[in-house]
Amino acid sequence: MTIKTNLQAVRDTLMEIMERYDNVVVMGEDVGPRGGVFQATRGLYERFGPERVIDTPLAELSIVAVAIGMALNGYHPIAEIQFADFIFPAFNQIVNEAARYRYRSNGAWPVPMIIRAPYGGGVAGGLYHSQSVEAFFTHVPGLYVLAPSTPKDIVGLLRAAVQVPDPVLFFEHKRLYGLVKGEVPEEYYEIRLGEADIKRQGDDITVVAYGLALHEAIKAADKLSEQEGIEAEIIDLRSLVPLDLDTIYESLRKTSKILIVHEDNQTGGWGAEIAARIAEEMFDWLDAPVMRLGGPDVPAVPYAPPFEKWFLPTADKIEAKMRELAEY
Amino acid sequence: MTKKQKRPSDELSDEQLLEMYYYMVLSRKLDERMWVLNRQGKAPFHISGIGHEAIQVAQGFAMRKGHDWYFPHYRDIATCLILGVTPRHMMLALMGKEGDIFSRGRQMPEHFSYKPAKIVSVSSPVATAIPQAAGTALASKLQGKDEVTIVGFGEGSTSEGDFHEGLNWAGIHKLPIVFVCQNNQYAISVPVSKQMAVENVADRAVAYGIRGVVVDGNDILASYDVMKEAIERARRGEGPTLVEAKTYRPVPHSTADDDRSYRSREEVEAWKKRDPILLFEKVLMERGLLDEAKKQEVLDRVMAQVEDAVDYALNQPYPPVESAAQGVFGDSPLVKWSKGVKG
């Protein structure tokens, strides 16, 4: 076992993937000699050179489009969008092109690629360096959407993602890059896409989360357990698409109460789809309404520290919601 | 006395010239029939290459079939026929029938896709293929392959940001790519004077550090010269070219368009004197390669192909409805799809 931060998990796995597969390239703004603005690609350029670690023009549309073209011609590109907030110029290429190439060509032209992007608030990033954008992409048939939040999960999922013959969005919470440390097994392992992970066992309520919200939910659960004897089962989604309903439903059969927490704006966030599926398929098992706790419906995380704290899914807010659910 | 420089088209044999003519006529007659089938209610939609046959056949002959990469313009019926797509394939796609090789009925017609010939699947949002083509060309270059990528589009596409970004990449990395703009003067109803402030699309090449060339897109041999040179320059590592083929679209944008609202019938009639097929017939006749009997022979051969393709496609079933729900993702042992309760 080694202890790594989330950032080290990303970087070391990229290094490993580049060694293992000759046809993997990393491309994005500042990924070369600078090693990435978060240092996620540090050392790759020195090891692999400019033909495999490509500094791109400041042009998200073509970062993705060129990656698509390379994927059609033998490569498995890992494109980086520097901040998820800047993914929108590439939206057409991701949704209308990458996601649809296989289906529209009846399987002739698959697009094997990964798009990595740091997302989420908590770094005084303001409205345009803190966004969660996953909900725009979970809606699109043809895209895998991943959001692992621990070093072990990042390593396992990134190893799997690079072997999947379709476009994968790989969101990394930027606040967690340095904040989260965890054990990573020495021996090689992979984590399948579409497998959630129970991070904390409990019988009283089920909490589904990912990202910063996951870690805050665990804090809240530990406090509620210690102080009030409420035992929450915390499910870390890890993959948003495919969604692991099997794990969620199995937990719900045990607890009968479920809360979905995410940092993204509540309205139309990925939690809304999960809540709808549960209501449709698991109605008889519920002892309480399906609850959600998402970000306020304002355009992203404001800059001033009190505003940031107000927006983000902190342990105290999650604790209050969990108590409300447990007491229903 | 200066010696006349040898042009690529001078290397074409008589057989090749007649083959080029055959493809122009085949494309035209298939195309005309597709309009009729639409008006008869047998094909929901069609978008045409009529008027573009010269540049399209020229580029088809200039590329290395099955070796070079090709992102077609949605009008490029003639080019695709040269690269191995058959008249039957065209008709199956037109009607959305089982056996449609482009998309098994999922896409509108003329959204060509044919992997054996490296014809990359066409999408409807224009210009998106331009930076993708830059990516394919970059991949060829990095792998040390002598493949060239050719990407086609209309002049309307050059207003999209994708155009700018694709040409920028091509210039920075000196990519083995040829950008082919078929400027037919209209983007649906919007004339080129409302589309750009410059006289020629090719004038923009200098802004990207690449070569730009204007050619008469209705002159098949001039078009072939320009395309052959551009493709071989790219193959030798001498970098990208932006080719602008000036042409004209004598038919509406598609079967869903009515062009009477935005241009005069006199303007459209005037094109007939510059019909690329007529112009090439004159050249072939001057060279003694074509006469009325030979013309009829070609036409008979073409019409037999057209009738066969139409009959075949009309008699094919549609793909099963269940097939529309399949193939969003490829299979992978590393992906688990849970069923939930309802699956």
Describe this structure in words.
- The complex is a heterodimer of chains A (328) and B (343).
- Chain A is built from 13 helices and 14 strands.
- By secondary structure, chain A is an alpha/beta fold.
- With 343 residues, chain B is of the alpha/beta class.
- Chain B has a single domain (11-325), classed as 3-Layer(aba) Sandwich (Rossmann fold), CATH 3.40.50.
- Chain B is built from eleven helices and seven strands.
- The longest helix of chain B has 26 residues, at 14-39.
- The termini of chain B are far apart.
- The mean pLDDT of chain B is 97.
- Chains A and B meet through helix 3, helix 4, helix 5, helix 10 and helix 11 of A and helix 5 and helix 6 of B.
Instruction: Please describe the biggest sheet of chain A, giving its number of strands, its sense, and whether it closes into a barrel.
Output: 7 strands, mixed
Helix and strand element order of chain B: HHEHHHEHEEEHEHEHHH
Roughly what percent helix of chain A? 25-40%
Shape call of chain B: globular
Poorly predicted regions of chain A: none
Give the name of the CATH superfamily of the largest domain in chain A.
Thiamin diphosphate (ThDP)-binding fold, Pyr/PP domains
Radius of gyration of chain B equals: 21 Å
Uncertain spans of chain B: none
**Count of domain modules of chain A:** 2
Taking the alpha carbons of the first and last residues of chain B, their distance comes to 81 Å
Largest sheet report of chain B: 5 strands, parallel
CATH superfamily of chain B: Thiamin diphosphate (ThDP)-binding fold, Pyr/PP domains
